[in-house]
Amino acid sequence: MKKVLLISQNFYPEIGSAANRMKNIYELLKNKGYLVQVLTTEPSYPNKKTYEDASFWDDEDLNNDRHITRIPIRSRKYSGNSVSRLFYYLEMMWRMIFAILKDRQQYDVIFVSSPPIFVALAGLLAKWKFKNKLILDIRDLWPESLKGVGVFHHPFIMYIFSMIERILYRKADFIIINSLGFQDYIKKQLGPVSAEIVYLPNAARQCEMASQTVEKARNQVIYAGNLGRAQDVSLLKELAVKLSENDIGLTVIGYGVEKNQFYEFAQQNGLKNISFLSPTTRKKCLNLIGQSDVAIVTLKQKDVFHTVLPGKVIDYMTCKVPIVGSVSGFSKSLIEQEKVGLVSEGGSAADLFHNIIYLLKSKELRQEMSRNGEAYISKSFIWEKNIETLVDCIEK
């Protein structure tokens, strides 16, 4: 059976869709009989202190798995300083490269997940060293997304990032995307090359679908996930005020660089209807989402985010909760076509609030959207089915 080297910054027990994606790919490839070795970093997202809590280490098989190599990173990534982020990525890349150069095993396939592209560069080195196939997993259009959130501005740095991106696309044997919205952009960057673009979305496990049978709360709205520069936290602040004025509960299970300012805003404005919960395990998070009437997703109105399908959209459908969104492009089309939620046209707090009120007053519509979400997940977003797409790439 073939041996696979899986390289990723994020992995269990980290929270977030990236780590969950890599964990599922690892476990399901092992279940298919592949020999899989993981090269990742010590858990640090959103911060290292989170994982001092033993509840996050809830999988004994993975806790004691000798096929998982975790690299410590000394630099701090999650600060507002672009230079410190750059040093974090560079340190991660060099430590991964060093680990690859020391590795005396032989692999048939390299699977590397990006962003950041620095990790993908380590995967490219592994392709050259082991003289094998490279599967490049694109979870975000990096560095395009950096422009959208304003993390890096220097034209020369962005030029270098773009050059690296094109090299990676052209050297990969397969390019895996988690949103169909990425296809056109990548084809423009690629030009005439042989790499095959394959769609493998984030998804739910069958056991997660089966567990979603909880009773709904009354007039309870939830936001779960990253509160970063892409999520338009200023819009969420305005919405929180309107919800508070109308005695509608808002639960925020958030993390990210703008979480603290959102929390401070709620405290300063006396928004007592908001409950801020610390990041928790995926199982507990899904259970909390499932108890809510409506779930919120937001992204800034930037062209780069037109291609994105946030992981929380899939999680909300998994939990059978109707979605209210301020999103565009691929996400907007999916939510509207599958009739699993309402998307605001203007991207304003007033539009979001109007849609939330409309759903809270329409129990039958919420139930219909809940059924639609469950059906669509079962059809298109189940890991046990979708993993066959990756198996086909490995076996080609």
TrEMBL record:
<dbReference type="InterPro" id="IPR028098">
    <property type="entry name" value="Glyco_trans_4-like_N"/>
</dbReference>
<comment type="similarity">
    <text>Belongs to the glycosyltransferase group 1 family. Glycosyltransferase 4 subfamily.</text>
</comment>
<dbReference type="InterPro" id="IPR050194">
    <property type="entry name" value="Glycosyltransferase_grp1"/>
</dbReference>
<dbReference type="Pfam" id="PF13579">
    <property type="entry name" value="Glyco_trans_4_4"/>
</dbReference>
<feature type="domain" description="Glycosyl transferase family 1">
    <location>
        <begin position="211"/>
        <end position="374"/>
    </location>
</feature>
<dbReference type="InterPro" id="IPR001296">
    <property type="entry name" value="Glyco_trans_1"/>
</dbReference>
<feature type="domain" description="Glycosyltransferase subfamily 4-like N-terminal">
    <location>
        <begin position="18"/>
        <end position="202"/>
    </location>
</feature>
<dbReference type="Pfam" id="PF00534">
    <property type="entry name" value="Glycos_transf_1"/>
</dbReference>
<protein>
    <submittedName>
        <fullName>Glycosyltransferase family 4 protein</fullName>
    </submittedName>
</protein>
